[in-house]
Amino acid sequence: MKFSEEQLKKVEEMISHYPEGKQKSALIPLLHYTQQQNGGWLSAEAMDYVAELLKITSIEVYEVATFYSMYNLQPVGKTVFEVCQTGPCMLRGSDDIVAYIYEKLGIKPGQTTEDGLFTLKTVECLGACGYAPMMQLGPDYREHLTKEKIDALIAEGKAKAN
Amino acid sequence: MSEQKQLFKVTIDNITVEVEPGTTILNAARKIGGDVTPPAMCYYSKLKDSGGKCRTCLVEVAAGSTADPRPMPKLVASCRTTVMDGMVVKNITSDRVTDARNGVVEFLLINHPLDCPICDQAGECHLQDLSYEHGKGASRYEFKRRTFDKHDLGPYIQLHMTRCILCYRCVYTADQVSKERRHGVLSRGDHAEIATYIEKSLDNDFIGNVIDVCPVGALTDKTFRFKNRVWFTKPVDAHCNCDKCSGEVQLWMRGDEVLRVTARKDEWGEVKDTTKGEPGWICNTCRFERKKISDWVIEGPSQVSRHSVISQGHYVGMKKPNETVAKVMGGRDPKLLMNIKDVSEVNQVELSEIKGPATSQVFKQLKKGN
Amino acid sequence: MGRKLLLEKAHVEGIRHYDVYRREGGYRSVEKVLKTMSPEAVVEEVKKSGLRGRGGAGFPTGMKWSFLAKPEGVPRYLVVNADESEPGTFKDRYLMEFIPHLLIEGMICASYALGSNRSYIYIRGEYWWVKEILEVAVQEARNAGFLGKNILGSGFDCDIFVQPGAGAYICGEETALIESLEGKRGNPRIKPPFPAVKGLWGCPTVVNNVESIAAVVPIVNEGGEEYAKLGTGKSTGTKLISACGNINKPGVYEIEMNISVEEFIYSDEYCGGIANGKKLKACIPGGSSVPILPANLLLKTAKGETRMMTYESLSDGGFATGTMMGSGGFIVMDEDQCVVKHTYTLARFYRHESCGQCSPCREGTGWMEKILLKIDQGKGSMSDIDLLWDIQRKIEGNTICPLGDAAAWPVAAAIRHFRDEFEWHVTNPSEALVRNYGLANYAKPLEIAAPTA
User: Fold this and answer.
1) Does B271 share its domain with B191?
2) By the number of CB atoms within 10 A of the CB, which of B71, B350, C64, C295 ranks highest?
3) pLDDT computed for residue C442 by the predictor
């Protein structure tokens, strides 16, 4: 893995947020960026490259990447449904949403469809309790979910892949 | 012309001791020794930043200091709390502490495999000691215990993640002693584990010291694996001329065979200072490669002072731990209602004199002889 | 209708951008502070305002600022905690999403008061689009000369950076947040030393919640004393409450702290009553970690007084019969909701979010989750309830950071107030699987719902 000139400029900009010598602080934003550039997940190779860019050891990167729940350490589908299941969403029927996605796509939390299009994850509170049930879809939230909305999201995901 | 340093007076379980400012409660208690010393599973005096995590050393601060005698509302980690002048600490005299410690031991054990019978650490395991002294006879945990994928750390170090209590000592050791770290704590919460992510063997010259700092059987010596039980081996002090480390070690022998080499440990189970006054970490060559008696100059039997299972063996030169209970209780000694040694028939015979197995017949003969 | 100080203009068209925000009177406080006030005077105003930290603990903000160590030649930092992850809480997101310049304006004033030339907003990674909104707003403020070198010719330099998290509730704990900002695992530090002495990169640091910092703007504009006139007693000013659960109008409300809980739930101005004509069963008024209260104790205190939406009134009665204001995450449960199941999801949340550093939290949270699941599925026994109580008791107060307490309190309160519901699950295992147990119907049990296919 190697970043282009342009990508490296972006990395430099991230590092400029911190005082001299504190470039390790850029690790979390840089991992986000790398994941985004690497098809939605972090391979060991990608993490080693991040370590090299920040002049830290690989284990420091692994420790961080495995700690935070937003980093995918395995390849994921093109569309990832991350459905919140914590208390307030549960009160509003998040279980039904998860069940409905299973009904439509045949995947349980943690699984990816065979065609590699969809991954379903259940996650803990995303801070949208008032708009429950909800899910995270890439960088955005989808709120007030209903069965109809799930149908639309699935269609959207399929259209995106074509 | 140096001014005499002002010392802080701290009272722990009714025993007062004077220590230098900046000393932690735990180290002040270690100065007293014996039962008033809180157990420490993660703190390691020779590793910077260690401690505070396992919560076994929690104590109650009944009075913060002479200047501000208010008690502290929560129990504090004695390994990371420094003393103030006039501080009053309750350890074994506090029911809250006993109760909390009891809880911590239970927490540490719910996912522990309890595989002591096949664990190489058995006999010198701090978790065994802790459970024996502060735990309960049975567990209330009824679910499946946590397991991990097996992870190979190379030819020298055996990792059993299920036994790990996440004390982070090995992480600090790699950072501070071997100055090169390839393993770390990965994942979080109850799935956190010690690993290298992609399997890598740990082969830094000083990485073997993680075995010595590990309080449990999570990191053990692969070259000693299943070779013997520690209580059947005889610890002797020995040294060699080593160009990497001090060469001052402890050999664990059986007959003329060197089964295992470790650093020398003090009464808290920590690596001792060398004769030159430096921490006695040893190198991998001494630990894993020098297994012939001709590699070593034997100094003599080690002094076993650990408050632990192996000290129950009749070692030459055994140093009994400091008994403080009577002092804590103002002269009373509730532990000894009856000294079993005085009434037990078994103890009328010196077991170490029995050559070979101590069958009932041998035992009876010896007793007759008395 | 109560006064609004923070969200008054949140719905002005285009307020997200500098021009409109400025036209609506934005950045006046920065001008006032930099041109007419000393840093000490700003701290003094905040102290006078009686502002209490809006992140959950309710510690007086001015006091926190005055603890900041100021050693010569060492930089100091202000870090805004936007790692809003407490279940039930989504107020900061609303503020940052709709009126981001308010936060930036407050940050400039606070940075000046604290002497921070480099301030950070640590925002949870899931709020990615909010992060982008903030970054645009920061750039606009920079272009307008409110950030950068020598702001408004005052000689004060300040810049703001937005730092994303990556999915960890624990990073809302201030020392874990600092660790995360340093590019490490979000393991809370062992205190002391406190961040005010040794925080970000070993330098003195203040970590404040988004809402606390935003509140600095009206405090500076109107003066601390004026601010303190709003609210009741020691609960001064306004508070953002994010209401969710089984209510007609979930959302974020800015309340003056002088209304009753009953008014908040039932008036049309706020939650608009319980959804679908159902009855109120219970409520967690301050984010998932504060104790749950049954309806009767929620609306009236044990002394029979009306319970108000203030720090003092909500905590009246201690944990035995009261709760806490917390972060203002107001979770309402109707008569059909199952307290056992809800408590289970919270236990699962805390197990998932425990950093794993200290033993009681790492092991205890998972244990509680397993037992709660067992009870919820009708496989529990009476002794499990006592065991659960004992486990939470042994976690509480014995951990490095407050996550242990936060995990223990909801379990403790659920057992304290709804023990009969737990016991009902044990004694009616098959029924427990097909219907929820409603406290509102003690006297008149619900019809047993037909099992769903």
Assistant:
1) no
2) C64
3) 40
